[in-house]
Amino acid sequence: MSHNVSGRPPAVVRGGRISSGDAALQRKLNAEAPRIPHLFRRISELFAPHKYSLILTVVLVLAGAALSVVPPLLTQRTFDDGLFPPGGHPNLPRLAELVGLMIAVYVVSALLGVWQTYVTSTVGNAVMGSLRVRLFSHLQSMELSFFTRTKTGVIQSRLQNDVGGVANVLANTVSGVVGNVVTVIAAFVAMLALNPQLTLIAVLLMPLLVVAQRRVGQVRARIATRTQESLSDMTAITQESLSVSGILLSKSFNRQRDEIGKYSAENRNLVGLQIKQAMSGQYFFALVSIFLSSIPAIVYLVAGWLLSGGSVNITAGTIVAFTTVQARLLFPLIAIMRVALDLQTSGALFARIFEYLDLRPAIVDAPDAAPLPVDTSRLGEVEFERVSFRYPDARGEERATLDDVSFTIEPGQFAAFVGPSGAGKTTVSYLIPRFYEASAGSVRFAGRDVREIDHESLVSHIGIVSQETYLFHATIAENLRYAKADATQEELEAAARAANIHETIVSFPDGYDTVVGERGYRLSGGEKQRIAIARVLLKDPEVLVLDEATSALDTISERAVQQALDTAAHGRTTIAIAHRLSTIVGADVIYVVDHGRIIEHGSHAELLIAGGAYARLYAEQAAEPSATGQL
């Protein structure tokens, strides 16, 4: 199965059908869709719960299409029997009867159309909604490495564009296919019944318009492709320039005018393309208008010629009814020619969705996985036994990130991992909650292999505070309750006090209802980090993992955060991934990691006496000007 994912948005879908101008782009996107075995069987399974609604849809479409050719036939009778009967004077009772019947047909057709729209919309959106939730749930189960190697925009495209396209295309595909086919057949039969000679004239002229439509569509498709690319470029500029990080960058380098100029230039290009696209279709629509206006005129001419010859008896009602039916034949005929693209498009959308649904998470619970007992005396114990690890996307010649690592951290112990960047320290923190699977060896938690523990149970006992704190664009209270949804206000405040952030929060005008902004940008780095610590304290885990939790902070903020971390670490197993050695000098045990291996371990004092890698690293940091007052 292919996993090559394109993040390009699908072509524009208008009214449930792919517009003619976007046809070439849509065909290209369809060709790039993955090949999924038994695709249409799987699609039909999605609609199986709605089979009665689909049957009703077909019945409604058939009825509506059949009724669509009734008014022209009634028009014939209205002219010939009501307005201009053989006696010469209008037959008012007959005329009233036919007009009433005609109005009744219009009312029934309109009601059937409303009913059909409701049914198709209900089915399409129900399938789309369940599919969107199913896909989102499946993505939540994917391992961390999937998200590190996949662009967020690509994932969003699957959830928004592809799943949304399912409702737009499929809600109208069945009704469009059945309705247009029935309409064309019924209209053609009605025309033959009215007059075979006039039918021949109308049918001979139809291919001219169809050929013109295809040629104009090709031109519009080329322009549409360039328009889509320009739209993508503008979206990228907007995303990069108007994000918080992008705005900070442009303001700090005084490049706002350059960004405006870049956006304006692309906007001018887009406006020009959109004008070309709009104008390229005007000739076609003008041709359609001329054609639709000309066919009745030609029919009148042919009818006059036939009448003058005396060989055919054509009534005025027949001529009016014929031109009315003929006018309803053209667009369904063109729509039928696009059915293949509509069906292919819906299949491609489903293929891209099923591609993600068919991905299997690399980390799943074993069949016999069980929750951890809360009364075990070893809760909080972490052990690595000859663990080696390579990231899934690592090349064959790359060395392992961790190589034969072994250690044991006792419950309540404070352990630190130090070493140069890329040594493998953070990887240790990923393996403990089983965000990644060890390539070899065994990771144990509370004396049990993490692969034998129910993953939700394992994670519930571990709290993580990383260097890159993530806060939602929500209130402080909502961000804190992410750890415990039913936490009371008293519990929020207790956690905030323990994290040394309560007084700061209540100093804000809205207190705990303060909205922190995108990624918490309305707060300082130290404030964000202490809120993250309060969030972990609200979770109250037995094991606390601190991944470079203070490395990006200034000295004052670091001291405030460090006080909060000391409080958080009290009474629980703490594993600190540290760059600044000043934060871990009080650790019970320090592991020095280099090139994926533990090269020495011991307390701060023991490692200084040993005079090894730790002592050299400590001396280097002590000599740095920025380290003054920290070591």
UniProtKB/TrEMBL annotation:
Residues of the ABC transporter domain: 382-620
Residue ranges of every copy of the ABC transmembrane type-1 domain listed in the record: 55-345
Entry GO MF terms: ABC-type oligopeptide transporter activity; ATP binding; ATP hydrolysis activity
Pfam families the record matches: ABC_membrane, ABC_tran
Superkingdom per UniProt: Bacteria
Transmembrane segments: 52-74, 95-115, 184-212, 283-307
Its membrane topology: Multi-pass membrane protein
Subcellular location per the Swiss-Prot or TrEMBL entry: Cell inner membrane
Family matches, as InterPro entries: AAA+_ATPase (IPR003593), ABC1_TM_dom (IPR011527), ABC1_TM_sf (IPR036640), ABC_transporter-like_ATP-bd (IPR003439), ABC_transporter-like_CS (IPR017871), P-loop_NTPase (IPR027417), Type_1_exporter (IPR039421)
PANTHER family membership: ATP-BINDING CASSETTE SUB-FAMILY B MEMBER 10, MITOCHONDRIAL (PTHR43394:SF1), ATP-DEPENDENT PERMEASE MDL1, MITOCHONDRIAL (PTHR43394)
Family: Belongs to the ABC transporter superfamily. Siderophore-Fe(3+) uptake transporter (SIUT) (TC 3.A.1.21) family.
Protein name according to UniProt: ABC transporter
UniProt source species: Sinomonas humi
Higher taxonomy: Bacteria, Bacillati, Actinomycetota, Actinomycetes, Micrococcales
